[in-house]
Amino acid sequence: MSADLVVRGGTVVDSAWEGPADVLVSDGVVAALLARGTPVDPDVPVVDARGRLVLPGGVDPHCHVGFTSGEYTSLDDHRECTTAAVFGGTTTIVDFAIPRPGQRPLDVARAQRAKIPAGLCDAALHGCVVEWDDTTADQLRVLADEGVRTIKMFTTYRGESMADESTILRTMAALRDLGGMVVVHCEADHIIVDSQEHAAGVDRIGAGDMPATRPELAETASVAEVLAIAESQRTPVYFVHQSTAAAVELVAAARRRGLRAYTETVAHHLLLDESSYAGPEPERFVCCPPLRARESVEALTRHLFTGEISTIGSDHCCYDTAQKREHRHDVRQMPNGLPGVETRLATVFSEFVVGRGLSLTRFVELTAANPARANGLYPRKGSLMPGADADIAIWDPRLAWTVTAAQLHQATDYTPYEGRRLTGRPTTVVVGGRVVVDEGELVDGTARGRYVPAGDIPAGPVQ
Ligand SMILES: [Zn+2]
């Protein structure tokens, strides 16, 4: 049998199956899963996976590349972001095209899409609607035709990216007929503004005061409102970075009523808590929603095991320490977001698979298969079944290592996980059938990023 590559001797883990198998790659896609040791042409290059797991490359459903918000732009471009992604075992990112005031969603999406070929791996794109006008429905139709079917909306950041409720309703109604879905950042802006005003009035508006400026109630209130809009329109809806168990449970209850509603969590809400704001550099942890109290984090993580969380993203935003520090005395002027595209898989694997017994198949489901399904990319992405793109993370489940920014590839000078001891990481990463990272070294830096258009959403059941 001829082929480009065979990954031999490992344990393949897909979202619904795991077992010993060799992965035969031909023309950039998985050609077959073979019984271990099945003979192949001796000229076919072999990737030795003995003692290792063979996972579909991670799909990061929430990754901001070179994102401008307020006065700040995050520091990476597609090449830098995808380099970090690939080193971390992620081989598909879903980036955002978020209009600045006055920009058209379609123009911004096309401009952001044009940057994808500079990447080391493939990327898909979320569009974004902020304001509804008489061109928006047509723009959404063109976006869907061009493979942008997930539309980000915000219920906070008034005057910047916030959309009002009727805009959310109209966008959902338009997407219903286009095989698309709204993906929404829910924090009720009026509650946040009030909380921030109170905090500022008592001079407690710095980075260390972050939790009180964005209370859990703001998230729950907004999720309830947006769920009601989705139910009224009978459209699917996906909630990004849900950070509280109460918000997750609202979505789960709607799903039980028959709504196609999905919860995304992001790694830092599962792995860090608000004690980070009491440390010496609280600004490094400023993100929205903020890191929550320990008991809230524990309640949230329980839903990883109950199945009520659909996906885990990174919400990667690559700001550096200087950007985070500049306005640390007033969170209203700070850049929000944490770098994390490279550490998403390893932190979650170590904490929940090694540490708490999450199954390998559920790990793949949360970090690759379901993100691909929810974004209309499955089974091309997020799977190792024959026909899928040959994006493969060969993973050493026992390798112990310490996270340090100096050894990561993200275009920033810090990581919120500095000094954390982890078990497990990718050692070799294959993108489109080519070995890009081998034993922790970049061996092929060719820019081969392809734009992956989304099909109907969601593609297949998302648990
Ligand atoms: Zn985000």
Structure description:
This protein is an alpha/beta fold and 463 residues long. The chain has a domain at 57-374: Alpha-Beta Barrel (TIM Barrel), CATH 3.20.20. Helix content is 30%, strand content 22%. The protein contains 13 helices and 21 strands. The protein has helices at 78-87, 105-113, 136-145, 165-176, 189-201, 210-213, 216-233, 245-256, 267-271, 294-306, 321-326, 344-354, 360-374; strands spanning 5-8, 11-13, 18-20, 22-26, 29-34, 46-48, 53-56, 58-60, 68-69, 72-73, 90-96, 122-128, 150-154, 181-185, 237-239, 261-266, 311-313, 392-402, 421-431, 434-438, 441-442. Strand 11 (90-96), helix 2 (105-113) and strand 12 (122-128) form a beta-alpha-beta unit. The longest helix is centred in the middle third of the chain and has 18 residues, at 216-233. The radius of gyration is 21 Å and the shape is globular. The two termini are 37 Å apart. The relative contact order is 0.18. The mean pLDDT is 96. The structure holds zinc ion. Zinc ion (ZN) is lined by residues 62, 64, 315.
The fraction of residues in strands falls at 15-25%
CATH first level of the domain at 57-374: which class? Alpha Beta
- Could you name the ranges where pLDDT drops below 50 across 5 or more consecutive residues? none
CATH topology of the domain at 57-374: TIM Barrel
Number of strands: 21
The protein's oligomeric status is single chain
